[in-house]
Amino acid sequence: MPVWNAAATLPRALRSVLTQRYTDWELVVVDDGSTDDTPGILAELAGRDTRVRVLRQPHGGIVSALNAGLVAARGAWIARMDADDESHPDRLLDQVRWLEAHGKIGLVGCLVAFGGDRTRQLGYALHVDWMNGIQTPDRIQLERFVESPFAHPSVLFRRELVERHGGYRAGDFPEDYELWLRWLEAGVRMAKVPRVLFVWHDSPGRLSRVDRRYALEHFFACKAVYLGRWLARELPVGRRVLVWGAGRVTRRRAAALGAQGIRIDGYIDIDPRKCGRRYGGRPVMAPGEVPSAGEVFVLGYVHKRGARDRCRAHLVGRGFIEGRDFLVVA
Q1: Between the CA of residue 197 and those of 111, 113, 128, 203, 208, what are the distances in Å?
Q2: Which of 12, 119, 242, 258 is 20 to 30 A (C-alpha) from 97?
Q3: Is 317 in contact with 301 (CB distance < 8 Å)?
């Protein structure tokens, strides 16, 4: 659990760990240079419960704190937790049992409850709905280029994954999403316990709201690296790549694939004003003009609510197979 100036929410998060039905745990809290009452709260708890270990370091940011925690942790399983969220009492028990029963799964999450005002914070609430609908290893593989498929502090994974594939990396990208993409690329299978075991609070100070690394464009830049490598590895030589969505923002995001050696051969759009035009020498076609499955590979970059489902439904209706003939990536 990395912590920085979280005195207002820390007691709630700590209580949710202390009340776990699975009791054979250690809590490594990395205090990343807090200047509020956080050190006192942690010292008092560590004095009462020897399972709590507090590491204090100068403020270095989330990646530094996470990696310090990974180094200090002594267990075979690593569970993430944040200082402003809550774990259900059955969380660790259910996730450990899941990994014990599924030897080929390396990381397991769970369904999460949205801890916020659904009306005022609808975007985050809808993201939680989407995440909760992606539970199996196959769906996580297929949907990984849409968005981060896990609430970071809700996961538990095998320590050996860090030793094999590395821990968190610092950069101009969300550290958790980059880690999932890197591990998935390495063949790590991931799943979710199909039960709500975590409350993901959408607090105003959440890093994903205030840190520039979590801006939408940085998600696209991060996924472009791994998507480009996947396409270069999986697509037959000569198969043309089409992007569903011909808007300026979509074209800019898809263009990042060029750095990975992926050529975009054309666009698909439902706007009749765009169909028949050319952007950068590439034609824009209507959905009904898309060549047959096997001739092209389609990347669904559409981002508006409901558009992904319409794109998927159209392609499946045409005989395209997700993962073989198309991917939804935004």
Answers
A1: 6, 8, 13, 19, 21
A2: 12
A3: no
Q: In this predicted model, what pLDDT tens digit does every residue of 292-323 receive, in sequence order?
A: 999 999 999 988 878 999 999 999 999 999 99
Can you tell me the distance from the alpha carbon of 194 to that of 22, in angstroms, rounded to the nearest whole number? 18
Asked whether the beta carbons of 325 and 235 are under 8 A apart, the reply is: no
CB 91 within 8 A of CB 108: no
Angstrom distances, CA of residue 121 to CA of 118, 125, 219: 5, 6, 20
- For the chain, the three-class secondary structure string (H helix, E strand, C coil) is CEECCCCCCHHHHHHHHHCCCCCCCCEEEEECCCCCCHHHHHHHHHHHCCCEEEEECCCCCHHHHHHHHHHHCCCCEEECCCCCCEECCCHHHHHHHHHHHCCCEEEEEEEEEEECCCCCCHHHHHHHHHHHCCCCHHHHHHHCCCCCCCCHHHCEEEHHHHHHHCCCCCCCCCHHHHHHHHHHHCCCEEEEEEEEEEEEECCCCCHHHHCHHHCHHHHHHHHHHHHHHHHHHHCCCCCEEEEECCCHHHHHHHHHHHHHCCCCCEEECCCCCCCCCEECCEEEECHHHCCCECCEEEEECCCCCCHHHHHHHHHHHCCCCECCCEEECC
pLDDT the model gives residue 160: 97
pLDDT reading at 284 higher than 90: yes
Q: Is the CB of residue 56 less than 8 Å from the CB of residue 39?
A: yes
The residues with which 298 forms a beta bridge, in sequence order, are 242, 326
Q: Tokens for 113, please give them.
A: 């409850």
User: What's the pLDDT band for 189 if we cut at 50, 70, 90?
Assistant: very high
**Considering the chain, what percentage of its residues have pLDDT values greater than 70?**
96
Domains of the chain: 2-214 (3.90.550.10), 227-328 (3.40.50.20)
Provide the Cα torsion 193, 101, 96, 197; round to 10°. 20
Tallying the residues shown for the chain, one arrives at 330
